[in-house]
Structures are given as C-alpha cells and as structure tokens.
Amino acid sequence: MIKVLMHGCNGKMGQVVSRMVDETEGMELAAGVDRFLGRENPYPVFESVEACDVPVDVVIDFSNAAAVDDLLEACAKKGLPVVLCTTGLSEEQIAKVKKTSEKVAVLRSANMSLGVNLLMKLLKDASKVLAPAGYDIEIVEKHHNQKVDAPSGTALALADSINEAMDNVYSYTYDRSQERKKRSDKEIGIAAVRGGTIVGEHEVIYAGEDEVIEFKHTAYSKAIFAKGAVSAAAFLAGKEPGLYDMSDVIQF
Ligand SMILES: NC(=O)C1=CN([C@@H]2O[C@H](COP(=O)(O)OP(=O)(O)OC[C@H]3O[C@@H](n4cnc5c(N)ncnc54)[C@H](O)[C@@H]3O)[C@@H](O)[C@H]2O)C=CC1
Ligand SMILES: O=C(O)C1=N[C@H](C(=O)O)C[C@H](O)C1
C-alpha cells in the first residue's frame, strides 16, 4: 500500500487528488498538509511536512510557490520522494529543486495531463519544420480568476520544449505594451488571459506567410491533472534520488 501525503490538501487540486488517491487500488491518502486548516478531511491534516508524524511513502504537492522552499527542505530531511506540481517557481527555487533531487526523488511537472505532455513532444517536431521556414511562434494561455501566477507554468514549459528543440535560440516576450518595435524572429510571445472558471487552455500559434497552424489543448476538468499526479506518485514511491518528469511516467 502506497501512503500519500497531500501537500496543499485543502486547495482545489488537493481536494480532487485526495478523492482520486482514495479511489486508487494500492494507494491510501494517509495525511495532508495545509496552512489553512478550516476544512473537514477523512485524514489528519498538519501545518507543515515537518510537523507530520504519520508515516508516508510519497508527497504530492499542489500548493503555492511560497510554500515550496520549506517543502523541499522537509522532504530532503525526511527522505521523502515528492511530486511537485506547483507552478510559478523562481529561478532560485528551480535550482533548489535540482539540489534536492540529489537527496530524494523529485518529479516536477507544470502540467500532469497526458494531452499537454504529448503536445510538448509534437511541438518539438513542428518547430523543427516551421521555425526554419520563417513561422513566428506565439502562445496564448487562459485560466480561471483564482490563479495567482502568470504566465502559466504550462505555457513556459511549452515554450521551453520548443526552445530545447531549436538550440535555445528564442527569448520570451510577455508584454508588448512598452515596446515600439516589430517582433524579432527569435522570440516567442506568451500572453495570459484570466477569467471565470476556465480550467486551462493553451494555444500554440505558428504564423507564417499566408498560413497559420494552431495547436490547442483544453482542460475540461481538474481530474486530468489529478490522474497524472496519482500515476506520478505511484511511479516515484521508492525511487532512487534523481530529477524526474512526466516523460518518465508516460511512455509514448
Ligand atoms: N502541474 C499541474 O498539472 C497543475 C498545477 N497546478 C498548480 O498547483 C498549485 C495549486 O493550485 P490550486 O489547487 O488551484 O490552488 P489553491 O489555491 O486552490 O490551493 C492551494 C492550497 O495550498 C495551500 N497552501 C498555500 N501555502 C501553503 C503553505 N505555505 N503550506 C501549506 N499549504 C499551503 C493553500 O491554503 C491552499 O489550500 C498552483 O501553483 C497551480 O498553478 C494546478 C493544476 C494543475
Ligand atoms: O492553476 C491552474 O489551475 C493550473 N496551473 C498549471 C499551470 O500553471 O500551467 C496547470 C494547469 O494549466 C492548471
């Protein structure tokens, strides 16, 4: 039985993941961590991973970037593998993730869905054909009005997967309002829209001469992320220290 600690258990994703873990054979939601304690849960909830005295095998995290430093330190100290799904991390935090993965297994992914992870693979191939042919690349993402980080972690990960395929020639432009110049062909524009209850949309636009190709992923429920997180936790429990991502879990 894999015992899971849900970090950010009282949040929107934390609640969806908790239910899914309990419906998964061979897995149990053993405890939760949240700084907001005003919700009834069928498992004990602690204020921090450090304070948790329930034995667990793996941590699933959907919380807030401000919570990630303490989380990484506690996981390293307790030898706990962690599935890190929180977005909006700083460069320093990303470096800390790498450092922590020398001590424990860490799987970090800005998007746990099958569709987005396949899209990342498809974009690498598309970019190799379209970028040399002069197509400009723009990404537009849309999310609900409760989201605190922008652009989304997924938009950045999509841009990174394109950039990786193209020898990192691109810089990213997030805001054109202060610019009075034409875009260069070595930039990827990334725009964010926030409103209502939009679960998550990502559109990658390749605009060429007289021709546009668009790749679009739409999330219709948070369950697609929870499903990926549960698979990732099953994969990570008992793994050696190291830095993993969803390409280690999903075999295309
Ligand atoms: N990788 C992926 O596939 C996905 C990632 N996310 C990311 O997951 C994160 C959480 O998303 P939501 O559940 O929608 O947010 P939310 O705001 O509904 O939930 C976050 C929870 O974390 C708790 N929290 C905040 N600071 C904390 C701390 N210091 N210690 C313990 N708990 C703390 C909050 O009290 C809250 O209950 C965001 O960064 C979001 O972008 C969301 C969906 C999919
Ligand atoms: O905050 C969200 O909701 C989501 N965040 C992730 C991101 O920033 O990319 C993943 C997903 O799009 C939902």
Automatic annotation (TrEMBL):
- Catalytic reaction equation(s): (S)-2,3,4,5-tetrahydrodipicolinate + NADP(+) + H2O = (2S,4S)-4-hydroxy-2,3,4,5-tetrahydrodipicolinate + NADPH + H(+); (S)-2,3,4,5-tetrahydrodipicolinate + NAD(+) + H2O = (2S,4S)-4-hydroxy-2,3,4,5-tetrahydrodipicolinate + NADH + H(+)
Q: Which PROSITE patterns does UniProt cross-reference here?
A: DAPB
Q: Keyword set for this entry?
A: Amino-acid biosynthesis, Cytoplasm, Diaminopimelate biosynthesis, Lysine biosynthesis, NAD, NADP, Oxidoreductase
Q: Which amino acids does the record list as binding NAD(+)?
A: 8-13, 40, 85-87, 109-112
Q: What's the protein name? A: 4-hydroxy-tetrahydrodipicolinate reductase
Tell me a Gene Ontology molecular-function term this record carries.
4-hydroxy-tetrahydrodipicolinate reductase
Q: Which proteins does it associate with, and in what oligomeric form?
A: Homotetramer.
- Which residues are (S)-2,3,4,5-tetrahydrodipicolinate-binding? 144, 153-154
Question: What HAMAP family would the database entry show?
Answer: DapB
Q: Pfam families given for it?
A: DapB_C, DapB_N
Annotated coiled-coil positions are: none
Q: Where is the Dihydrodipicolinate reductase C-terminal domain?
A: 115-250
Active-site residues, as the UniProt record annotates them: 143 (proton donor/acceptor), 147 (proton donor)
Function summary:
Catalyzes the conversion of 4-hydroxy-tetrahydrodipicolinate (HTPA) to tetrahydrodipicolinate.
Q: Which family is annotated? A: Belongs to the DapB family.
Subcellular location as annotated: Cytoplasm
EC assignment: the record states: 1.17.1.8
Tell me the pathway: Amino-acid biosynthesis; L-lysine biosynthesis via DAP pathway; (S)-tetrahydrodipicolinate from L-aspartate: step 4/4
Quick check: keyword Cytoplasm in the entry? Answer: yes
Tell me the ranges covered by the Dihydrodipicolinate reductase N-terminal domain, including all copies: 2-112
Q: Which SUPFAM superfamilies does the record cross-reference, listed alphabetically?
A: Glyceraldehyde-3-phosphate dehydrogenase-like, C-terminal domain, NAD(P)-binding Rossmann-fold domains
